[in-house]
Design brief:
By secondary structure, the chain is of the alpha+beta class. 35% of the residues lie in helices and 22% in strands. It contains nine helices and nine strands. The chain has helices at residues 2-12, 20-27, 31-43, 67-71, 90-99, 148-162, 235-249, 257-265, 269-279, and strands at 48-51, 55-58, 80-84, 106-110, 131-144, 171-173, 177-180, 183-194, 201-211. A seven-stranded mixed beta sheet has the order 3-4-5-9-8-7-6, with helices on both faces. A hairpin with a 3-residue loop joins strand 1 (48-51) and strand 2. Helix 1 crosses helix 3 (31-43), helix 2 (20-27) packs across helix 3 and helix 6 (148-162) crosses helix 7. The relative contact order is 0.13.
Length: 280
């Protein structure tokens, strides 16, 4: 699709102008066709500066979630990626796909959720343009019997992705919440598909809701929910960084090193130590 191809080039050269003629020659289309695509991208919210002499430039501040934008940061080209402007829940969609017999490794990302899910039937407030609501549906390379390890690894992946950009340290609340400046900024909902014969988890559905940009929370959430309030990096880059860490960690969930990394940020290190004592 021409629009995705042009967006991929703009993402690759973010903040650098690319002439319309170069884009036209690269994809074998007219400059007018390029101009139409650029206007479509602008209508979708991408911040693109047009300079008649220099060409088109995707601004550093542009923060629209997109497949080309996310792929620009992914290490795994085989992973299927889909982005939604709005969906009920990325975890729900992943489960629907599995129920329909689709077992490929899949990343689903939404700009807004209308029925974001938390643990034990709780909801996760998921407004547009400010957060990352994503689900990685992946077949584990090694069957697993300890579901907590999936969530612990996801929390570590989030910390690795965003901690370098923060002025204060993230804190991890056992087992699936992440706090920043004493407010919850991230929730993780991990679900597993088990083999009925062995009882082992073979396929993981890992949902992550992360409040990245400043958001106007409802009154009932303002004293408990917060945001990282980051201006950079882009949400596409954060998604890519999280997924890259997740895929690395999920290659060997029996390795306890990442659990010790989790413990460094834990609000309840005694619970982590107890987990290692029983399951290490």
């Amino acid at each position: 699709m021409l629009k995705d191809e042009i967006l991929r080039v703009l993402e690759d050269e973010r903040a650098k102008p690319i002439s319309g003629q170069v884009l036209a020659d690269r994809f074998g289309v007219s400059r007018n066709a390029v101009w139409k695509v650029i206007n479509q991208l602008k209508e979708e919210g991408h911040s693109i500066r047009s300079d008649g002499k220099k060409g088109y430039c995707l601004e550093e501040s542009s923060d629209v979630l997109s497949v080309p934008g996310i792929r620009n940061y992914l290490q795994s080209p085989e992973l299927s990626v889909e982005v939604y402007s709005e969906i009920d829940s990325t975890n729900n969609e992943a489960k629907r796909r599995l129920g329909a017999g689709e077992s490929r490794n899949l990343l689903l990302v939404a700009d807004k959720q209308t029925a974001g899910r938390g643990r034990i039937g709780h909801t996760f407030y998921s407004p547009e343009h400010t957060g990352i609501y994503m689900t990685l549906s992946i077949e584990l390379p090694m069957p697993l019997y300890q579901p907590e390890r999936i969530t612990l690894a996801a929390a570590v992946a989030v910390v690795r992705a965003v901690q370098p950009y923060l002025s204060e340290e993230l804190r991890l609340k056992w087992v699936n919440d992440i706090f920043y400046k004493d407010l919850k900024v991230c929730g993780i909902l991990s679900e597993g598909i088990t083999d009925l014969e062995t009882g082992l988890i073979q396929h993981a559905i890992v949902g992550i809701g992360l409040n990245v940009r400043p958001a106007d929370f409802p009154p009932e959430l303002r004293e408990i929910a917060g945001s990282l309030e980051l201006e950079r990096p882009s949400r596409n880059e954060i998604v890519g960084r999280i997924v890259n860490s997740l895929e690395e960690l999920y290659r060997d969930l029996t390795n306890d090193d990442y659990i010790r990394e989790y413990m460094e940020y834990s609000m309840h290190p005694e619970k982590v130590k107890e987990f290692l004592k029983i399951n290490g």
